[in-house]
Specification:
Layout lengths: L8 H28 L8 H15 L19 H20 L7 H7 L1 H9 L16 H13 L3 H23 L5 H9 L2 H7 L5 H21 L5 H18 L4 H13 L28 H26 L15 H8 L7 H14 L20 H5 L12 H27 L13 H14 L9
């Protein structure tokens, strides 16, 4: 799009966000390896921090490669964008302040912080305490172990908060590839979701999941458009790695990762016509269509995701006898009775409630309300904007450029698959009737909602 709409910031900002996120993913796996061999850095981690900062400053002295790409033409923003940007800044600032308070959030105290504390006390990773949540993927917990060793118990919440601006850094390019002109609106819609903003200030892992799913989706879109070019396999490999990081943050990423797998398997690459310029994706001149991604591409993506996720499965298998502890199989401290109580199969929503779920979770959902009973609370406050905007995506669909429709279609595949998986879970157990389990796809939903807002312009008439 022309400068001033989403401007030249998008690619550079997304690249910086991807680099930081990939680094934090590597740090989590490194901490797992160190804890496995009985070395927990603690305060000694400052040596690595200072050393890495010194190396970065020396390497980039006078010529940081991303400096020019981060120039933002602020004067070209519209007044409404300024207001949305101010709202985002205030929202992130409020969440940042909350990270400084002593942790009180339930899941944080039960296992997000307890797991790292147990590892630090033992000096190694182990499963000697009867706490089933220790079998969950622990990318976030490994980062919390690193952070708490550096500067105390409030650092994990700060690390989690960091993934909120990292996620927002991906939205401009993601929106641009979908033909959406209002990236600031997408960011504001995401931060206007009360539960999402609340969790940003807690030592949880939801924003890590949101970042990883968004990063993988963005890279899949890049690969779909440029996969036939030299080096396209690197983009696909990184897309798979971020999908593995999503699973490494939370088991409930399975629905979104299944959607990403489906998108990689069936989506064609984009049309790159001779009249298409880097800054203008609206060109109507079609180019040659690249072939349908084959089984080899899909297998390669799947392998990269599996390699990143596998360490957590291996850790569980060695420590508990169940790679996906505490689910599906028995293991240490675990028997059939506890497995039933932990799953509560057969207590989920009825067919009618499943059909009404979009209305109830957005209009009636309340943060902290449980999933049992005839009026499920859905455990989160999402707000009605999603219900209002998302169905409007159909308006003006045919008027959108083909490349934009293709990108939006990829987002719909990922979100639709994740929602179908969540519905199956909610229909099986009342313990899974939590709409916050869908937060991983909410950055994608924010882009879809912003696209729907753009499409409402098709309704303009002299009377409306």
């Amino acid at each position: 799009f022309p400068s001033g709409v989403i401007n030249a910031l998008a690619p550079g900002l997304a690249d910086v966000g991807l680099q930081i996120g990939a680094g934090l993913g590597g740090l989590g796996l490194t901490m797992l390896g160190l804890a496995a061999v009985g070395f927990v850095p603690g305060r000694a981690g400052w040596v690595a921090v200072v050393g890495a900062a010194t190396w970065l400053i020396w390497r980039g002295r006078g010529n940081l490669p991303w400096r020019e790409r981060l120039k933002f033409e602020v004067w070209s923003l519209k007044f409404g964008d300024w207001l949305l940007a101010a709202f985002c800044a205030l929202s992130l600032g409020a969440a940042l302040i909350r990270t400084l308070a002593p942790p009180t959030a339930w899941d944080g105290l039960v296992y997000h912080l307890t797991g790292p504390k147990l590892i630090g006390a033992a000096g190694r990773i182990a499963h000697e305490v009867d706490l089933p949540y220790l079998g969950f993927p622990q990318w976030g917990e490994m980062l919390f172990l690193w952070g708490s060793g550096l500067s105390g118990e409030t650092t994990p919440a700060l690390i989690h908060w960091l993934f909120a601006p990292l996620t927002l850094s991906l939205l401009p390019e993601l929106a641009g590839r979908c033909g959406v002109r209002r990236a600031w609106l997408a960011a504001a819609l995401l931060l206007a979701t009360p539960t999402a903003l609340l969790l940003a200030g807690w030592p949880y892992v939801e924003w890590m999941l949101m970042f990883a799913v968004t990063a993988s989706t963005l890279l899949v879109l890049r690969w779909q458009e440029n996969g036939a070019e030299p080096g396209g396999w690197k983009t696909l490999a990184l897309a798979g790695a971020f999908a593995g990081l999503a699973l490494s943050a939370k088991y409930t990423a399975a629905g979104a990762v299944a959607g990403l797998a489906l998108a990689v398997a069936i989506q064609r690459t984009g049309d790159r016509g001779p009249g298409t310029e880097d800054g203008d994706r609206r060109s109507s001149v079609p180019g040659p269509r690249s072939p349908v991604p084959g089984l080899r591409d899909f297998g390669f993506w799947l392998l990269c995701a599996a390699l990143v996720f596998a360490p957590w499965l291996i850790k569980n298998a060695l420590l508990t006898g169940n790679p996906v502890y505490p689910f599906f199989f028995l293991g240490k401290f675990w028997d059939a009775a506890r497995a039933y109580w932990f799953g509560r199969g057969g207590t989920g929503l009825t067919i009618v409630q499943l059909l009404l779920a979009p209305w109830e979770m957005t209009v009636s959902g309340v943060e902290g309300a449980g999933g049992f009973g005839t009026t499920p609370g859905y455990g989160a406050t999402l707000g009605p904007l999603w219900l209002i905007l998302l169905p409007a995506l159909a308006i003006g669909w045919r008027a959108r450029p083909a490349v934009a429709r293709r990108a939006l279609g990829t987002l719909l595949i990922v979100c639709g698959t994740a929602y179908a998986v969540w519905l199956a879970q909610a229909g099986w157990s009342a313990l899974l009737v939590q709409s916050r389990l869908l937060l991983g796809i909410f950055p994608l939903l924010a882009v879809l909602a912003a696209a729907a807002f753009d499409g409402l312009a098709e309704l303009d008439t002299p009377r409306l």
